[in-house]
């Protein structure tokens, strides 16, 4: 387990919630307690299906591990959803940090079978959407925090981050260096997915 990993992701959870609340859009939070399924793909698919089952017609999903994501990115996605597009936020590692999709465009079977948590995810997802004849809108590419080297990257490059964030990153880096070990985040432990609904509930 990475030193101070709990503190880092607790900070991330608070930050993404604050950014979401700035948008003024309704939202749902799906932590590990609310997620169901034996695989990452199954848990993610079930979370999205659960929101659509509440009567909503569009949603945006973001994780808690992309510090550079801003409220404006979510609002841009909201706008693009109204243009009947599937919106993807590409991560630098080949994954995605944001998804905006309508209920009519959501294929649960295909979605669950995507190569989740691999560098092939975004490419495979885009190909599946294009095969279904759907329009795709790409957001700006951002880096997420998946491993120890990502912690160092953010500490060195994000000069504008809060002192609290910098201190947490520095503490993690120092502890990792002290044991001279390469450690990665246990995403299964810290993973939290927040779902933000972008449509009005259906009354039918």
From TrEMBL:
| Domain of life (superkingdom) | Bacteria
Gene3D superfamilies from the UniProt entry: Spore Coat Polysaccharide Biosynthesis Protein SpsA, Chain A
By its UniProt entry, which SUPFAM superfamilies does this protein fall under?
Answer: Nucleotide-diphospho-sugar transferases
Q: Which InterPro entries match?
A: Nucleotide-diphossugar_trans, Trfase_1_rSAM/seldom-assoc
Give the protein name, as stated in the record: DUF2064 domain-containing protein
Q: Say which species the protein is native to.
A: Kordia antarctica
């Amino acid at each position: 387990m990475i030193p101070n990993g709990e503190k880092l992701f607790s900070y991330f959870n608070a930050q993404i919630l604050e950014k979401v609340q700035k948008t003024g859009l309704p939202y749902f939070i799906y932590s590990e307690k609310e997620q169901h399924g034996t695989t990452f793909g199954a848990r993610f698919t079930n979370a999205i299906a659960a929101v659509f089952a509440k009567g909503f017609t569009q949603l945006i999903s973001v994780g808690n591990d992309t510090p550079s994501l801003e409220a404006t990115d979510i609002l841009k996605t909201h706008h693009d959803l109204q243009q009947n597009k599937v919106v993807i936020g590409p991560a630098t590692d080949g994954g995605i940090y944001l998804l905006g999709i309508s209920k009519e465009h959501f294929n649960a079977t295909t979605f669950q079978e995507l190569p989740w948590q691999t560098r092939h995810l975004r490419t495979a997802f885009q190909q599946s959407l294009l095969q279904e004849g759907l329009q795709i809108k790409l957001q700006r590419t951002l880096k997420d925090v998946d491993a120890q080297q990502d912690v160092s990257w953010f500490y060195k490059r994000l000069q504008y981050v809060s002192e609290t964030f910098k201190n947490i990153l520095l503490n993690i880096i120092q502890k990792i260096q002290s044991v001279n070990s390469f450690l990665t985040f246990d995403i299964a432990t810290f993973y939290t997915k927040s779902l933000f609904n972008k449509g009005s509930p259906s009354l039918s």
